[in-house]
Specification:
By secondary structure, the protein is mainly beta. It has a domain of about 110 residues: Ribosomal protein L14/L23 (Ribosomal Protein L14, Beta Barrel), CATH 2.40.150. The chain is about 5% helix and about 35% strand. The strands form 3 sheets. It has a 5-stranded mixed beta barrel. Strands 2-1-8-7 form a 4-stranded antiparallel beta sheet, with no helix packed on it. It is globular. GO terms for molecular function: large ribosomal subunit rRNA binding; structural constituent of ribosome. Keywords: Ribonucleoprotein, Ribosomal protein, RNA-binding, rRNA-binding. InterPro entries: Ribosomal_uL14, Ribosomal_uL14_bac-type, Ribosomal_uL14_CS, Ribosomal_uL14_sf. Belongs to the universal ribosomal protein uL14 family.
Length: about 170
């Protein structure tokens, strides 16, 4: 991954012995060991649920939003899911103002997501792209990496606006 991205994408795969191996650090240790390299693997990751603060990664005018409701699932939202959120911070002259209730699609989540080839993808932060009720993005640019799982969730327009697909 290039160093210019604001978020890092981690691919975690399974080795032949069945243990988790981090794709970037390559560190392996026992469960009693807490080193800086595998602390990220042992950190608790949760769904995006009510009151989760997310970063907005498009140019719609909002900076941070707080999740009000996940529209799918009892536990919360994951990659590609739509949420209802309230704008907590916004640029002064953007399309979206502070306090407005908006829809958003989760494009980066700190919780791991398994892929068909057996690998898993996770990000450093929770990020969202704001959309209207029909699912079309409000902004015209999407910053940072976006996972290709959005294609399965029918968010192709977000993928075309993204600068990097992970």
């Amino acid at each position: 991954m290039a160093a210019s991205f604001s978020s890092r994408c981690y691919r975690v795969g399974r080795s032949l012995l069945g243990g988790l191996v981090n794709g970037f650090s390559g560190l392996r240790s026992t469960s009693n060991d807490l080193t800086c390299g595998n602390f990220l693997l042992q950190q608790q990751r949760t769904f995006i649920q009510m009151r989760t603060v997310l970063k907005v990664v498009d140019n719609s005018g909002a900076k941070k939003v707080m999740c009000i409701q996940a529209l799918k699932g009892k536990k919360g939202a994951r990659l590609g899911d739509t949420i209802i959120a309230s704008v907590k911070e916004a640029h002064p002259n953007g399309k979206v103002k502070k306090g407005k209730v908006v829809y958003g699609v989760v494009v980066r989540a700190a919780m791991q997501r398994g892929r068909c080839d057996g690998s898993e993808v996770k990000f450093d932060d929770n990020a969202v792209v704001l959309v209207d009720k029909q699912g079309q993005p409000i902004g015209t640019r999407v910053f940072g990496p976006v996972p290709h799982e959005l294609r399965q969730k029918k968010h192709v327009k977000i993928l075309t606006l993204a600068e990097h697909i992970a």
